[in-house]
Amino acid sequence: MSYCRTINHIAVGFLVMSMLMTCSQEPSESGVVVIEPVMIPSENGPPDLSGIWQALGSASWDLEGHTASKMPVTSVIGAHGGIPAGTSVVIGGDIPYQPDALGIRNANRADWANLDPVAKCYIPGIPRLTYMPAPLQILQTDTEIFIAYEWGGNSRSIFMDRPGTTAPLPSWMGYSLGKWVEDTLVVDVTSQMPDTWFDAAGNYHSGSLHVEERYALMGENHIQYEATITDSEVFSRPWTIRMPLYRRLEENARILEFKCVEFGEDLLYDHLRRGYDGSKNLDGTLRVDLIEEPIDQ
Amino acid sequence: MKKSASLIVSMALLIVYSLVQADVPMKAWGKPSLQGNWDFRTVTPFQRPAAFADKEFLTPEEVEDYEAAVRVGREARASAEFDGEYDQQDLDVGYNQFYLDQGTTMTTTMRTSQLIYPENGRMPAMTERGREASAYFRVLQSRSPHGPEDRNLYDRCILGFNAGPPMRSGAYNNMMKLIQTENYVMIQTEMVNDHRVIPTSGGQALPASMQLWKGDSRGQWDGDTFVVTTTNFTHLSRFSGTGESMTLTERFTRLDENRLEYEWTVDDLEMFEDKFTAVVELQLTDADLYEYACHEANYAMPLMLSGARKQEATGVEDDTWLPSWSR
């Protein structure tokens, strides 16, 4: 199945395919011939990336190839608690961990529901926010490109007019400096906190993380997104993920609220609730023993 | 003679207007630029103090005196030796003077209050329903919390206490970023690191059943003023005691190179007997917005809940959990 044909199938189901999409062939690292979309050059200034975009697939669960599996909630929500399968978005297939670091990743994976910072509604950082299952909106100006993410109400500024500057201090979203390299937006992301993960499968990094993102408009309705991860404390070499971002085309497409704090509070604080008995609801409502208790006024 | 004088006055006004307009940065598509990082700190009181009753504006000398009095008060608080009851009061607030960043100047219009309507510069009276709702939340937040939901949205890091909407000068982090394209204006508040992306062409309203913490904002240009109408708030959003019926109207007008007028009106006749309107001027700043990772560092919530469970275990009944700043 070619890359372009895959996109076309998805487009039939979810999106209207860009009429500008064209394809060329090149061999992948694994030797398999894949068809890559050809970037559409801009005629006047840099390409306009403005719009509402979203990654499809299940990279937020696991960047590497994975079969479908169970979340520890299927006794409550049945098949809704299944993690969808997905092919690897890592070029070359696997993440090149150093041996000790791979052990840490595996330990993370074994207890991911308790350890994944996203489960607690912590800011996912970059690149993970790009492929969380929620749209993002790009607002493009000459001096600053702002990305508003629906997931968690997070956001970041990509500064286009201050090359060579550094962050005043580390942050969960890091410090993003952008530049146009021909028609591709290249973003250097530094100074991210060491606390974020790349997915829910325990893939992690250290405080030395450096991410170089590339946003290339492939037509009216697709961005080819790439992120190269460099972290010599954890990985044996830099590695790259690649996935398309699809424009949300529905007439009323917009960024809504996904303030995940209220969904992370059970995990974080349930044991500190009054009358905690080890069980909790997963539907976001207060437990009956709390909401039925009268308040003296 | 009368005609000549009138003509001269008109020409002078036109020249002044043109000069003022010349100071307003414009976007390529013909609208004033709202883009930038804006500082909304001010020591202008939100409501008009009794000392300024019936006085809408101060003189420059009175402004100087007021700002000096604020400085003196802060210096006294910063150098106070905290002990006894005062020490406890300081701890209740959670911060001493070192952490507060409330600005040092009044708004440049020299108004005696941010509120300009009702005309007395004071909040309108609450309706019976408004008083009932406020009483309910006071009791809820006074008791030792049964869970995080008992605490207000600021303690939970869901909304910011000065981030609104509407945004109102508060204890710290009084900064907002505006990003502007032809089709959208984005407002990001530093407090709780939150944003609204507002279409400039009105956009499609959400159905009443879809309620958002920050409401549903839709914008349009009224001449050179960007007007944002926000509805669909949750019943917990509660700006100064409002409810889910609130309609918020915000008006952003670029005054000159460095100032942006921000006027807002809250209309919630379910909770208040009248609407209320405030106006301040925001100052352009070169400072960046910092990431306010509130939830990620919310050590207070588990500590509060742990304290409440400890009180229960030792049989302590405590109804003093209401923050001192909201008593």
Describe this structure in words.
The complex is a heterodimer of chains A (297) and B (327). By secondary structure, chain A is of the alpha+beta class. Helix content of chain A is 15%, strand content 25%. Chain A is built from 6 helices and 13 strands. In chain A, strand 12 and strand 13 form a beta hairpin. Chain A is globular and about 65 Å long. Chain B is an alpha+beta fold and 327 residues long. Chain B has 2 domains: 72 residues, no CATH class; 205 residues, no CATH class. Chain B is built from 5 helices and 10 strands. In chain B, strand 8 and strand 9 form a beta hairpin. The radius of gyration of chain B is 22 Å and the shape is globular. The termini of chain B are far apart. The mean pLDDT of chain B is 90. At the A-B interface, strand 6, strand 7 and helix 5 of A face helix 4, strand 3, strand 4, strand 5 and helix 5 of B.
Query: Count of DSSP helices of chain A?
Result: 6
**SS-derived structural category of chain B:** alpha+beta
Q: Please give the radius of gyration of chain B in angstroms.
A: 22 Å
Strand content of chain B: 15-25%
Span between N and C termini of chain B?
64 Å
> What proportion of the residues of chain A is helical, as a percent range?
10-25%
What gross morphology of chain A would you assign? globular
Given the C-alpha coordinates, what overall shape of chain B results? Answer: globular
Query: What structural class should be given to the helix and strand makeup of chain A?
Result: alpha+beta
